[in-house]
Amino acid sequence: MLDVKLISKICSWLLLIALSWSLVSCGNPLETIDKSAIEQSSVPAQSEKLTEVAPPILIEQLRQSLEQYQSQVTILSPKTDEILPSTTVNVQVQVGDLPIFQNPELKLGPHLHLIVDNEPYGAIYDVSQPIVLTDLTPGTHTLRLFASRPWYESFKNEGAYAQTTFHVLTKTNENNPDPSLPLLTYSRPQGTYGAEPIMLDFYLTNAPLHLVAPEEIADWRIRVTVNGQSFLLDSWQPIYLQGFKPGKNWVQLEFIDGAGNNIPNVFNNTARLITYEPNGQDTLAKIVRGEFELEAVRGIVDQNYQVPPSPPITDQEEIPGVEVETTVVEPTEEDILTEKPTVEEIPVEEEVPVAEEEETPVGESLEEEATLGEEIPVTEEPSVVEPVVVEEVPVTEEEETPVGESMEEETTVEEEDFPVVEEEETPVVESIEEKPPLSP
Q1: Are residues 158 and 294 in the same domain?
Q2: pLDDT tens digits, residue range 370-402?
Q3: How far apart are CA 274 and CA 246, in angstroms?
Q4: Helix %, strand %, coil % of the chain (to 5)
Q5: What is the pLDDT of residues 108-134, one digit of tens each?
Q6: Structural domain that includes position 142
Q7: Which of 63, 207, 252, 273 is the most exposed place for a label (fewest CB within 10 A)?
Q8: Measured at the alpha carbon of residue 60, what is the angle toward residues 224 and 46, in degrees to the nearest 5?
């Protein structure tokens, strides 16, 4: 009996241990699920909206006008490692194979990006005069300078970038990049934007090709973070992004190695705060939205190109309408010309009654000889006179005035021959008299 009781107790204890073990093993997965759910909820909701898109069409069209240039940029002063005695520094630069100008109306054009240490760049549109830097702090400073297109995209050809490190009053360890290591220069985005997509651009120096790079930086990348969303770039070219939120946005660029660690050099980790204001009315925003015709903005890539402003273009479009009006006027002049013959025909109509007046004595003579006084034969007689009217048509032509004189002579002759006509037509009247049924 004792053995049975002992066995039953052992079994009960084993069951309790098994149940407790199962409860403990089931609790751990629940905790991991909760943790993963919390981690997933911490991802910003807007991160999925940020996407890369194609460059604006108008920018791609303008780019072709600048493909011919291979800009060459040089910093003449200050010299590398020069110690300056003042906090005000005059910077002299030289640019070759690229016209530097700003379109006076559109306020854009090929220019230079000048970066002091790691501050936001300043746009330089005139290199004929020294660039004055004021209130520099004592110590070491670095200038970076490179050529840029009117829409702020950097030229990346050999010689388009220049750099110098100098000292104000004394040397320090800050702002002094290692020339033997790759260096990242943040360029865009910067400032305020009025339209999407927004271009992201940067400059790389001492960045070897992936195939020939040292092992420790063979898999270098550019890590981009926008409002908390990160992605990697392994090529040196600008990209266009959309999905920025209206208002403030932050952008960070990092130069990293294959393991994801920052490559140790100053300026290789830079962040900027930008502002996005949709429906901006600045020139760049309108170009991005495609609100310009190509010819209207060609002046930002060609200094010698002259295009009339938009109002004159509308006037030129109205010129064909004026030509149409002139064509409408021309028919009216033709109508006037066509009316002239009608005016010339008026005297012809006036001459017809003159012939009738001349015929009236003929009717009177017929009435004297015909006692019946019937007017029906008189209406038939103008048919004899009609040939005379046809002969008088040339009289309307002013050039045949001599013919008219001859016609007048003929008419006078006819007036003298009227008695002869009366004698010939008397039988006709008599024939009418012989037909009494027609007289009623």
Answers
A1: yes
A2: 344 444 444 444 444 444 444 444 444 444 444
A3: 10
A4: 45, 25, 35
A5: 999 999 999 999 999 999 999 999 999
A6: 51-208+216-300
A7: 273
A8: 35
